[in-house]
Amino acid sequence: MIPMLRDIVATELAPTATSDYPGGLAAALYAGRHVDFFNYGFADDATRIPVASDTLFNLASLRKTFEATLVALGTRRGELRLDERVAAYLPELDGDYIRRVTIGELVTHTSGLLLPTDHPPWPNESFDLTQFLDMLNAFAPPQGVEPGRQRIYTHAGYVLLQLVLERRYRTQIRELITSRILKPLGMSSTFVPERAPDHRAMLSDAQMARAVQGYSDEGTPIGPPGNQQSYFDFRGTGQMFSSARDLSIFVAACADGRSIEPELREAIRMTQHESFRVDEKFGQAMAWETVHLDGVTVLDKPGGLNNASGYIGLVPARRLGIVLLANRGEYPHEIARYRILPALARLVAQR
């Protein structure tokens, strides 16, 4: 069956990563303890360095799945409660709305928060920690929006979640992710680097040699290799970097989990429980989105910047998972959600 699964993936991915498109694509398929890799195009069009399974990409919002796992781990260990208000850890938050928001609402995008940094038209400035907290204190939602009553995707909510975790554990977010998730899983090429004043990730020479050049979807280079982006000028607010090979380990843990430590396995499963139903087709879990299709439920998380695209999709019921990493904006990740994963799931079910 493995060759048939590979054919489905390759047939769908190849047209999305031809020479007509900038950059390249690295993908990994997990299917019942078997991993396959698919690589297309270039990490840098100018130097013609090809994409490989160990090429390092900016993960954009795929990072949120790791922070959600930290919350689930803390909850299972009795270190956090989902119904705790975030102001318990950040007493500086005393605004009428924000002081009512809970950790559980942040991690499931049901807090109602929506700051100017969350949607177009994007602001031209960046914000330090004091300014960010001031923005949260001043936040007043549209009429009818209340904590926990709606799903509104918010980047700022996860920046706030980062601060809650750092206050609770008195440890930087990069160290929390590394010690509690990456090291136990054996992921050695995934990290949250410090961000230099020029918005470039502080990578070693060896890491920089593996990092992609990012492109717009029209082919314009955006930023140098290792580019990080954030509207917030305080530690930990840049993006993670990883490779398709390393992320395949995380995908295996999320889609299967049979060979990982039980507490971490159960925390990962906790993040996948749908907590808010948006409509007949879509729901929201802890970072993960749930998509109910004909006979198949897909859990996934897309992420993207103007020069990077990422996607992790899962069908845990069939022990299937896929990761897509592209060094261009606007990669059509929906192809995995609506075509690749359902086709794989149907094939596995028939066997």
The whole-angstrom Rg is 19 Å
- Biggest β-sheet strands, sense, barrel: 9 strands, antiparallel
Distance between the terminal alpha carbons, to the nearest Å? 8 Å
Total strands = 11
Within the largest sheet, what's the order of strands? 3-2-1-11-10-9-8-7-6
SSE string, helices as H and strands as E: HEEEEHHHHHHEHHEEEEEEH
Strand content: 15-25%
Shape: globular
Count of DSSP-assigned helices: 10
Low-confidence stretches: none
Helical proportion?
25-40%
Average pLDDT metric: 97
Structural class: alpha+beta
Show the helix and strand layout.
Blueprint: H1 2-13, E1 24-31, E2 34-44, E3 49-50, E4 57-58, H2 63-76, H3 103-107, H4 129-138, H5 155-169, H6 173-185, H7 205-210, E5 241-242, H8 244-255, H9 262-271, E6 276-277, E7 282-284, E8 289-293, E9 296-305, E10 308-315, E11 320-326, H10 334-350
Helix pairs in contact: 1-10, 2-5, 2-6, 2-9
Q: What can be said about this structure in brief?
A:
This protein is of the alpha+beta class. It contains ten helices and eleven strands.
Structure notes:
The longest helix is centred in the C-terminal third of the chain and has 17 residues, at 334-350. Helix 1 (2-13) runs antiparallel to helix 10 (334-350). The protein has ten helices and eleven strands. The strands form two sheets. A nine-stranded antiparallel beta sheet has the order 3-2-1-11-10-9-8-7-6, sandwiched between helices. It has a two-stranded antiparallel ribbon with strand order 4-5. It has helices spanning 2-13, 63-76, 103-107, 129-138, 155-169, 173-185, 205-210, 244-255, 262-271, 334-350, and strands at 24-31, 34-44, 49-50, 57-58, 241-242, 276-277, 282-284, 289-293, 296-305, 308-315, 320-326. It is of the alpha+beta class. Strand 1 (24-31) and strand 2 (34-44) form a beta hairpin.
